[in-house]
């Protein structure tokens, strides 16, 4: 059983949540535009489209400045938000269960990759984690386009390996290609 929490613990928790809310509200869409300007988002959308012409999977990219207050109050993680966005953006709703979401939460410098069950069965958690680490290293150096392009190329290679289009088969493009900015 957990030890009872004292007044000091509760106030630290309360003030910790307030500080986290403040950090998440401080960063806004302008921060996203500085890190990922509209021209870059357009190039990424074209790269997603080119990728999807090679396999039957769907790739979505979602960038969020900060978590909604409701997530912060309940101490939710970036992973929880990424899983929620995976559902909200309907990445799970692909015919072959092979959608992949690349989720970026700028305030917490968090990167999450959520893969649907069709591709998750074939790719180890270690591979997804390594991909995330490489992206994170590029982002720390301010190379957002390089990091996203490399991650997209790696996700594409996995989807081509496990879900290639059959000869003559066209990409059904079940989901939009443009990154979602929130």
Description:
It is globular and about 60 Å long. The protein has a four-stranded mixed β-sheet with strand order 3-2-1-4, with helices on both faces. The protein is built from eight helices and four strands. Helix content is 53%, strand content 12%. Helix 3 packs parallel to helix 8 (144-162) and helix 7 runs antiparallel to helix 8. Residues 5-11 have low confidence and may be disordered. A hairpin with a 4-residue loop joins strand 2 and strand 3. It is α/β, with parallel strands linked by helices and 182 residues long.
Can you describe this structure in just a few lines?
With 182 residues, this protein is of the alpha/beta class. Helices cover 53% and strands 12% of the residues.
Query: Spans with pLDDT under 50 lasting ≥5 residues?
Result: 5-11
Approximately how much helix is present in the residues? 40-55%
| Count of distinct strands | 4
> What does the largest sheet look like?
4 strands, mixed
Spatial strand arrangement across the major sheet? 3-2-1-4
The structural class is alpha/beta
Rg value: 18 Å
Question: Which geometry do the CA atoms define?
Answer: globular
Please indicate the percent range of residues in DSSP E strands (runs of 2 or more): 5-15%
Q: Mean pLDDT across all residues, rounded?
A: 88
Question: Termini distance?
Answer: 39 Å
SSE pattern: HHHEHHEEHHHE
Q: What is the count of helical runs?
A: 8
């Amino acid at each position: 059983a957990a030890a009872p929490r004292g007044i000091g613990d509760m106030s630290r928790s309360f003030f910790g949540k307030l500080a986290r809310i403040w950090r998440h509200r401080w960063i806004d869409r302008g921060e996203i535009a500085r890190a990922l300007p509209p021209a870059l988002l357009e190039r990424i959308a074209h790269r997603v489209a080119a990728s999807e012409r090679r396999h039957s999977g769907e790739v979505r990219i979602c960038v969020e400045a900060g978590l909604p207050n409701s997530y912060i109050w309940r101490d939710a993680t970036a992973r929880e938000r990424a899983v929620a966005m995976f559902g909200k953006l309907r990445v799970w709703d692909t015919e072959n269960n092979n959608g992949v979401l690349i989720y970026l939460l700028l305030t917490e410098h968090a990167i999450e990759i959520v893969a649907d069950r069709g591709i998750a069965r074939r790719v180890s958690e270690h591979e997804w984690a390594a991909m995330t680490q490489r992206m994170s290293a590029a982002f720390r150096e301010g190379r957002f386009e390089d990091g996203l392009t490399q991650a997209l190329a790696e996700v594409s290679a996995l989807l081509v390996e496990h879900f290639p289009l059959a000869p003559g088969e066209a990409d059904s493009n079940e989901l939009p290609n443009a990154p979602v900015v929130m």
